[in-house]
Amino acid sequence: MKQIAPSILSGDLLNLSREIELIEEAGADLIHIDIMDGIFVPNITAGWNFVEAINEKTSLPLDVHLMVDRPERYIEDFIKAGADILTIHQEACIHLNRTVERIRELEASPGVAINPSTPVAALEDILDYIDMVLIMSVNPGFSGQEFIYASLFKAEKLFRMINEIELETIIEIDGGIKVSNIAEASNSGCDIFVSGSGIFGTENYSETINEMKRRV
Hints:
single chain; 216 residues; alpha/beta; TIM Barrel; 8 helices; 8 strands
């Protein structure tokens, strides 16, 4: 089933409760939360207390994306705060398998993200252990960037890899996703579509999400 995950940091943070209500009413399937440390990516956002606050305001699953260096230091805190899916970067984690297994032990769904310059071949030995791959379709760190169309070829290649070894790993794509390109991302094999300004930058979230779902 194709799912839409609004990226909450693109919403009005001074009216976060209202923004959550609006995307719930609009038919969002997940809430995507980007965590950045200013080291792995050139931006700083929030910590697990932010995730905890959102968790108290919604019943939607929380899709937490750790864009941080050495994410293994923080996984217990974020899962305790309410992360249902916890995604870490292949490029940021030395002991990837161990960390993924720990996420599962803590009863969250493990995901692994790759940056635009990282080939999908880097995931070959971890695919058996994860529930989701997140393909970054912009360079991580800031919202509102232009979609990198080469990401679609990566998604297609990953989709073939997953099917060849008969896994049920799902593909998420994040960065520059809008109504205008979501069908292409879907046709490339993606299952979950993270959209920040593509939703929060529109006047009617419900119309936007409904049109996204229609196109995928």
